[in-house]
Amino acid sequence: MHLKRVLCRNFRNFDEIILDLNSNLNIFLGDNGQGKTNLLEAIYIMATTNSHRSSVCSELINWKKEEALIQLLLERREGNIKLAMRLDKGGRRVELNDNPLDKVKEMVGYLNAVLFSPEDLKLVKEGPSHRREFINLEISQVSRYYNHLLSKYDHILKQRNNLLKSIRDGKKSSENMLSIWDEQLSTIGAKIILKRIEVVDKLKILARLSQRQITEGKEELEIEYDISLDGFSEKMGEAELRGLFNKNLKEKREQEINRGYTVIGPHRDDLILKINEMDLRKYGSQGQQRTAALALKLAELEFMKSETGEYPVLLLDDVFSELDSLRRKALINIIANKIQTIITATDGENLSGLKNNSYHVYRVKEGKIKKRG
Ligand SMILES: Nc1ncnc2c1ncn2[C@@H]1O[C@H](COP(=O)(O)OP(=O)(O)OP(=O)(O)O)[C@@H](O)[C@H]1O
Ligand SMILES: [Mg+2]
């Protein structure tokens, strides 16, 4: 798939930009604070519905304006698709081929995108929430069903946590009601966990290959799904897993009431990353962690391709300056002529290896974008 056209109006520091993109490579050059990441952010929002750097919708609208618009024309194998998101004080509304969609989340799955930025080191280095988000976003983009399960799970979890707090504070004592929420949480939760395990099984093979490629065979990357339930075995089917989840909830009930929230479930699971059998998060060097973050992103590209039959659009925010020549080469080999890539950089120095493809170069300055040449 590739983006043919991008329009942003009153988004961040843009007044109005309209870009006709190259189906292969697009390079956006500009000094700090000019709008390069803003452009990638706008595109990424259309893939996932959320910004990777802000959860507050109003921050996305230009300070001097009341509403913003992002519009994309996307070429997929099935034909062209037009996507739009309108943002204002009331929130976000989305359109598919000029028709409004009921829910913002319904837009997920039309544009598939993988974003790689220096902050992705967090994926390897920091707490579990980054890895959960990685796996959730990755699966959501290729599975509407999973996306739906996640929304449902979040809803049940909120209700259950509210009830736990009420019981703790002596406002309600309905433990029967809690059992109903346990049932629902474990039913949806088991489905989510099984889907994640299935995807991690595919991802670990792809990521291992990427890691080997980048390190010329020196490093073996392993990924494991780290489940928060006691007594799990890989042979478990959905019914057994649901039963186990429910049993764990009963065992934790007292603790959960004391704390006022749910302490186990897919919202507490993690991925364990190891290099040559060593825990990467705890003991990995900066370079090893960076390589693994890149390997995970490359695995994500291949995973999406295998699920949808098409490569997603790749967004690279200022990453070339941080990669050494081996990693840069690995990335260039993957991209070469097959993945539409949108790259930002402060200067074009490290990008020379890429330019044997067909490409566009743009200059970004104070929220204005001009194509060069
Ligand atoms: N809601 C907004 N309205 C107007 N301007 C905004 C808004 N949000 C951010 N900006 C401006 O956008 C600019 C930041 O843009 P962006 O993050 O895209 O920079 P960049 O070109 O990626 O820079 P760097 O190279 O430092 O990463 C800042 O100057 C900021 O003041
Ligand atoms: Mg930036």
TrEMBL record:
Q: Which GO terms describe its biological process?
A: DNA replication; DNA synthesis involved in DNA repair; double-strand break repair; SOS response
> Sorted alphabetically, which PROSITE patterns does this protein's record hold?
RECF_1, RECF_2
Q: Which UniProt keywords apply?
A: ATP-binding, Cytoplasm, DNA damage, DNA repair, DNA replication, DNA-binding, Nucleotide-binding, SOS response
InterPro entries in the record, alphabetically?
A: DNA-binding_RecF, DNA-binding_RecF_CS, P-loop_NTPase, RecF/RecN/SMC_N, RecF_2
Location(s) in or outside the cell? Cytoplasm
Question: What is any one of the record's Gene Ontology cellular component terms?
Answer: cytoplasm
UniProt-listed Pfam families: SMC_N
Q: What is its main location?
A: cytoplasm
Where on this chain does ATP bind? G30, D31, N32, G33, Q34, G35, K36, T37
* SUPFAM superfamilies assigned to the protein according to its UniProt record, in alphabetical order: P-loop containing nucleoside triphosphate hydrolases (SSF52540)
User: Which molecular function term from Gene Ontology is one that the record holds?
Assistant: single-stranded DNA binding
User: Per the record's keyword annotation, is Cytoplasm included, yes or no?
Assistant: yes
Keyword field contains ATP-binding: yes
Domain (RecF/RecN/SMC N-terminal) spans: 2-368
Protein task: The RecF protein is involved in DNA metabolism; it is required for DNA replication and normal SOS inducibility. RecF binds preferentially to single-stranded, linear DNA. It also seems to bind ATP.
UniProt xrefs under PANTHER family? DNA REPLICATION AND REPAIR PROTEIN RECF
What does the similarity note say? Belongs to the RecF family.
What name goes with this protein?
DNA replication and repair protein RecF
This chain's source organism reads: Halanaerobium hydrogeniformans (Halanaerobium sp. (strain sapolanicus))
The taxonomy runs: Bacteria, Bacillati, Bacillota, Clostridia, Halanaerobiales
